[in-house]
Amino acid sequence: MTDLSSRGLEIQISSKTPEELINKWMWSFEEDKADGVRTYRPESYDFPPSRGRTGAEILKNGKFISYEIGPNDKPIQFEGQWVYDKKSKTIEITFKKTDIGVGLMPIITENRKPLLVEIISFNKDIIKARVKDENEFEPTKK
Questions:
Q1: N or C: which end of the chain has fewer CB within 10 A?
Q2: pTM to 2 decimals?
Q3: CA dist., res. 31 & res. 92, Å (int)
Q4: Sequence-distant (≥ 6) Cβ neighbours of residue 93 within 8 angstroms
C-alpha cells in the first residue's frame, strides 16, 4: 500500500482533520445532481428503500473501509487508508489488495485503484463530494 504520510499530509486524528468527517457515510444517490457531485449521509439517516447502498467509513486511525455491493448482492468491504489535505480539501484513499470469494465462485484478488475525494461541503449530517479515480489525478507514489 502507498504510504500517504510521506507527503506530509495529515493522517488520522490530526487536529486539522474535521471531526465531522469521522463517520460511516452511505451514498444518498437519490439526492445527486447531474454535476458529478455525490451526496453522502450518515448510516443512521432515514434513506428511502434501495436494493443496495454503497458507502464508506472514515476512522480516526487513518483506516478507510469502502462498502460495495458484491456480485451476489451481498455487501463486500475493501480496506485502505485515507489522508486529508486541509489546503485542497481532499481525501486521498489507497486500498489494500482484497480477496473476494462468493459462494462457489473462486476467490478473486481485487487491487482497487486509488481515489481522490474532493470535499465540496460537509457537516455532521451531509457530505457533498466529487470522487476522482487515478485517471483524473496523480496518486501519491511510494
A1: C
A2: 0.77
A3: 24
A4: 64, 66, 80, 81, 82, 114, 115, 116, 117
